[in-house]
Structures are given as C-alpha cells and as structure tokens.
Design brief:
By secondary structure, the protein is an alpha+beta fold. Helix content is about 40%, strand content about 15%. The chain has 24 helices and 20 strands. Strands 1, 2, 3, 6, 7, 8, 9, 10, 11, 12, 13 and 14 form a twelve-stranded mixed beta sheet that branches. β8 and β9 (about 335) form a beta hairpin. α4 (about 105-125) packs across α6 (about 140-165), α4 (about 105-125) runs parallel beside α8 and α6 packs across α9 (about 220-235). It comes from Cafeteria roenbergensis. This is Penicillin amidase. Keywords: Signal.
C-alpha cells in the first residue's frame, strides 16, 4: 500500500413550470450565480482556515488571479502515519480549478488516478482481500496482485472512456465538469505526472456509473473479461498469464457494488434551536488509497468573466470531479447512496451519482430547485439522493433511469423481473396506482420525505408470501410495525440475502405525532421505500449484489434518530453520533469482560431491547463486528472508514467531515468564512 506525506506539511416538492424552466436553463451551464459580492483572497482564506483549526501549508496562484490554498489540521491526524489531515480551497473557472488541484495536491491526485483506479474493481470483489494482498509480506504475492490490478484497471479505463466519449455520455454531463477534468489532466502533465491522464480522471468520476449499470444488468464480469482479453489480443504486457487466468474465473456473483450508505435529515421539532442537520455516511471501497487521499474541498467556481458562481464544500478526493457529499453556500446539502435495480441502461449511464451531486449543488439553492435539476438530467441507472436545505426540507429522491414521460404516471417496472412466480406474487400495478399513487415527479424520480405513507393496506398482504417464496421465516407482523425490526441483527440479514435479497416491501418506520412531526426526520439506507420502484430491486442480477444489512441499518437508524428527534435533541454533535452508529467499539480495558467497554452502548443491544434507544443515542454508540478491516488487529478502531462521513448544520453552513480510520477525528469547516473578503471565526 502506497504511503505519502502531506506534501505541504419535508413535503414532497411540487413541479412548477417556472422552476422547470429555471432548471432547464441551468442544464449544461456553469451553475447559478452565488449570493456573494466580495471575492475571497489568499489572505482571507488563510484566516478562515486558522479559525477552523488549520495551518496553511501552501498555495498556488495563476496569472488570471485564480488560486488554491492547502491547509493541514492542527488537531486531526491520520491513524496510519500520523500526518495532519488536509483540506483545500480553490477558486477559478472550472478548468483552472482542475489545474490548481493538480498543483497543490499532486501526490493524492496521482494516487487516486493510478492506484485507486487499478485497485477499485478488485476491492469490489473483497475489500479484505484487497487489503491482505496489497499489503502481503510476500513480494511474489504483491507482484501477482499488482499485475492483476493493472490489467483490470486498464480494462475499466478503456471501457469507461469508450462509454463516455464514443457512446454519447459526455454530452449528458455539464461541459464545465468535463473541462475541470481536462484542467486536472493538463495540470498533472505540466508537473510530470504522466500517468494521470484524462482517461483515468474520467474513470474516477464516471466509472462507478458505468460499472454499476453493467452489474445491475448482469454483464460486469463479462465486460471485465472482455477488456482484459482485448489487452491480450493487442499484445499488452499488462495481460499476464496470471491476470488472464484470474479474470476467466470471475463471475457476476463475485462482484459487489458498495452499498453501506445511510443518511439522516432532521429539522423542526426534532432539532435543537431550529437548526437543520444533515448527517450522511457514504461507504465505498477505499482500495488502500482513498483513506489517505481524501480531503474536504471548498470549491468556489467563477464564470468566464470572473463572476462568482455557487460555492460548494465537498467530500471527495483530488482527481474526483464528482463529490460524494456536497454542501453549498445557500445551505443546500446532498449525497448519493447506492440503489441496486434492474432499471438501468448500460450503454448510457448518463449524468448520475457523484457528478450529479456536484452539478446539483452548483445549480440549486434549495430542495425544490434540486428536484427540478435532477429531473432534467438524463440518468441511466438508479441511485438514491438524500438532501436537505437551509429550511430543513429533508427529502430523498428515489430514482430509476431517466424517462421522457412528462405528465404520465409512474412506470410499471415489474416486467423487469424474469421470475414469473415472483412477479405473480406482487401487487397488481393498477391496484398500487389506484390505491396509493407514488410521489412521482416524472423522469424516473420519486420524491419522498419522512412522512411518506407507504400503502401498507395494499402492500402488506403480499410480504408474507414473498418471504415464503424465498424460504425465509416470517418475522411476524410486529417486525413491520413502527419501531420494529425485520431482522434482529446485521448478521441475520446478511445470512438471509442469498434467499430473500430485497424481494419484499420495506416498512417506512414513520415517527409518532402525525405527518408534520414525521416529516421532521427523513432517513435513507440502500433500499427503495416506494413500492413502484422497489419492484426493480427484485430483478435477478440486482439480487446478486448484496447490500450489507441495508434493512437492519435503516431500522436501527430510524429507531435511534426518532428517539433522539422525538425529544428535540438532534444537533450537529448528535448528527455525528447518529451517523457513526456502525463504528467499531474501542478495545476492552484490561480486566473487563464483554464486547463493549464502559461508557459505550452497543447498537446490537438497542436492537435486542437490552438498551434504551434514547439513552444510547445521547451517548457513545458502536456496533461490534460491523467494520473489521483493521491495520492493528489489537485495536478495532483502527478499521478503515470505507468512504467518509459528513455532518452539516445547514443554517450556519458549518460542516464536519470524518474519513481515514475510525479512530481519526472530525475536521470542521465553516463555509461562509471562506467566501468573504475578510474571514471571521466560527464556533460549534
């Protein structure tokens, strides 16, 4: 594994013709104008970093006046090597932003574009295997593993770029984001980073959509085999005998897509002082790289005339033009969660996932604007997009692929299911539509919040038959009632996946106190609650891809969040506790017995009823055995955070980010301070 130092030290939104026109006007543009009149300077950004507990360790300024500042935390270090965690500020045109990121984060950029791209697919097969082989003490094992990764990496770069440039997908992505990729490539080349190519940068931000669309339709293993065989036919030295033998063994059931994501949006009666909170965890394979290369980035784009556009604070890594979580200067926050469905077009994955998060955060000031923007984008596969804004309109967009269906009802997706017996046990689509039309905004977008009323009277009679068909014991009606658990623990759900998968209708877990109170908390995991879309999760290929305990995570996060929100106790600190509920427990103190040390509560005890959810949520929580990929076997909290966690106070636009390892601390950034010509401090 490579190491490198830090170089420089709601109610559902409605569709209106006016908002639709505004979204259409933003398509392909460089984002809506920001509210700022003053422009930040290197000095003002440096002052803002100091106020947030960083020291400036470098900066770069272009002749146009565009600049970047890199800072290192004074308080938060990386578990693996003790280096200070970094953050970036960058302003300029999108092309200049790319150039500047290459200037101030070259090592992380190269690691993401080369090592991460090469190891990502193997990490999809097994993150633990990737860690063990990549860090093997046997040079021969590391050499063979490196050859396999290089061959697969070259294959996905070719496949993703053929899809992007030759199959028309580039035209579906805002041109300014493609220009940023070109700026990154040109900036890298000017600094001698010859392996950081435009093709690899496209793969970083678009490759996951391309891979997922093929996985959901049953052809990812075939695509990878064909790409490596293509290398062999070309006589490429990357196509070694070992690599060829390995990919010939690859089957669809070996491939996973990261599905460990959760989010909570809270507002109104659930929060302290009326300040909305957005907390989300995005887990993706770190591939031995992301945990070191990631850093929060404050991106303040300018148009071609130098006028400020909407600034965004994003969680990601240098080289990723897309963002896994974004919070903009208006207080709009958005993330993306995996949703495995057969409603996918592998030829045209389009504009989706992290590139869509970035573009939406630059185009929309609030949730209604974001709904319209997402509707306008041609997306080729399903994702979940949790979001909220400064008004606390917590919302989840449950999306399938884009459809040109303005004014039409939601599509019937049950024909995607090839199993006739399974299909016969589903509610008739006409009955679903008649009894409870989906909150369908058109273009493959379903809009829900915490008060979404799943049509229980229509759906519930079918669930027991679906469990029986799968050979899965029925958990009882109480498991689907408010506050229930479909599975008693995460291991039980994982064990049932091969039989049941997502072939049932999930409960919504509404809160108590009526629709208004329920809407104050919106929760998402890696599953669709809207039945009209849920049926697309039941396809054969989507069912091969496990979602690590998605239902159990949803149920437990609901129980904890609604207990805390019911007492009006959710603030940013509570958001950090809630979204960390799966974290490993600390190692036991000498002489103590049991799985959890004093002062901590196991979420497994909350699930079993042995611990009170409100008491647990007010303190420190952990889940023994959920994350286990450690760098120190004696310390469970040395496990890698496979992705990152982000919490935002959307009223003050203060954001906390945690990545790297579970024992690492949180970075805090107060976004408004970076966008003024004179920075001011901030406080919790």
């Amino acid at each position: 594994m490579a190491r490198w130092p830090l170089l420089l030290g709601l109610a559902c939104a409605t569709v209106s013709s006016a908002s639709a026109a505004a979204a259409a006007a933003a398509v392909g543009g460089a984002g809506r104008p920001g509210a700022r009149l003053a422009k930040p300077s290197v000095a003002s950004v440096a002052a803002a970093f100091r106020a947030d507990g960083f020291r400036v360790v470098g900066n770069e300024t272009l002749p146009s006046g565009a600049f970047a500042v890199r800072a290192a935390s004074l308080n938060v270090t990386l578990r693996s090597d003790g280096s200070a965690k970094a953050a970036l500020f960058v302003t300029g045109t999108h092309y200049e932003i790319g150039q500047l990121v290459a200037a101030v984060a070259p090592a992380e950029l190269e690691a993401m574009a080369v090592e991460y791209v090469d190891r990502f697919v193997v990490a999809l097969l097994s993150a633990k295997l990737d860690m063990e082989l990549g860090n093997s003490s046997d040079p021969a094992v590391r050499k063979a593993y490196g050859e396999l990764c290089a061959a697969i990496g070259a294959g996905i770069v070719h496949g993703a770029n053929t899809s992007f440039f030759d199959d028309g997908n580039e035209a579906l992505v805002p041109p300014e984001l493609v220009e940023e990729m070109r700026g990154l490539a040109d900036g890298a080349r000017s600094r001698g980073l010859r392996n950081v190519t435009l093709a690899r940068l496209v793969t970083l931000s678009y490759g996951m959509d391309w891979l997922s669309a093929h996985a959901y339709t049953g052809d990812l293993a075939g695509v990878l085999r064909r790409q490596v065989l293509r290398l062999a036919a070309m006589g490429s030295p990357l196509a070694t005998p070992g690599a060829l033998a390995a990919v010939e063994l690859l089957r669809e059931e070996h491939v996973t897509v990261p599905a460990h994501c959760d989010a909570v949006a809270a507002a109104g009666s659930a929060v302290v002082g009326g300040r909305p909170v957005f907390a989300r965890g995005f887990q993706l394979p770190s591939a031995g790289t992301f945990q070191h290369a990631n850093m929060p980035m404050i991106i303040a784009p300018l148009d071609s005339s130098g006028n400020p556009l909407t600034a965004v604070l994003g969680a990601g890594a240098p080289g990723m033009v897309g963002l896994i979580t974004a919070v903009n200067e208006h207080g709009f926050a958005m993330g993306v969660d995996t949703l495995r469905t057969g409603d996918a077009d592998p030829q045209h994955p389009g504009h989706a996932s992290i590139l869509l998060v970035r573009a939406t955060a630059e185009a929309a000031a609030d949730v209604p604007g974001a709904v319209e923007y997402v509707r306008s984008r041609k997306r080729g596969l399903s994702w979940l997009y949790p979001m909220t804004d400064a008004s606390g309109r917590g919302t989840v967009l449950e999306t399938g692929r884009w459809r040109d269906d303005a004014g039409q009802p939601a599509p019937d997706l049950s024909p995607l299911i090839q199993d006739a017996t399974l299909r016969s046990l589903l509610p008739p689509f006409a009955e679903l539509q008649a009894q409870a039309p989906a909150p369908y905004a058109g273009a493959g977008v379903y809009v829900r919040n915490g008060s979404y009323p799943r049509p229980d009277a229509v759906v519930e009679p079918y669930n027991q038959a679906l469990f029986n068909l799968a050979g899965q014991p029925w958990p009882g009606d109480a498991a689907f009632a408010p506050g229930g658990l479909v599975f008693p623990n995460f291991t039980a759900e994982d064990a049932a996946w091969g039989r049941l998968a997502s072939k049932f209708f999930s409960p919504t877990r509404p809160g108590q106190g009526g629709a208004a109170a329920a809407a104050d908390i919106t929760i998402v995991s890696n599953l669709a609650l809207v039945p009209q879309l849920r049926v697309a999760e039941m396809t054969a290929w989507a069912s091969l891809i496990p979602a690590h305990a998605a239902q159990w995570r949803f149920d437990l996060l609901s129980r904890l969040s609604r207990a805390l929100g019911g007492a009006g106790l959710i603030d940013a600190d509570a958001g950090r506790r809630l979204i960390s509920f799966l974290q490993p427990c600390p190692a036991q103190a000498s002489g103590r017995s049991g799985a959890v040390p004093a002062g901590w509560t196991s979420v497994l005890d909350v699930a079993s009823g042995a611990a009170d959810p409100l008491s647990a949520a007010k303190g420190r929580m952990c889940t023994p055995g959920f994350w286990t990929d450690t760098i120190d076997p004696a310390d469970p909290r040395s496990a890698v955070v496979e992705g990152s966690l982000t919490v935002a106070d959307t009223e003050t636009k203060t954001v906390w980010v945690k990545a790297g390892f579970w024992s690492d601390g949180w970075l805090r950034i107060s976004l408004p301070a970076y966008l003024s010509s004179q920075a001011t401090g901030s406080s919790d």
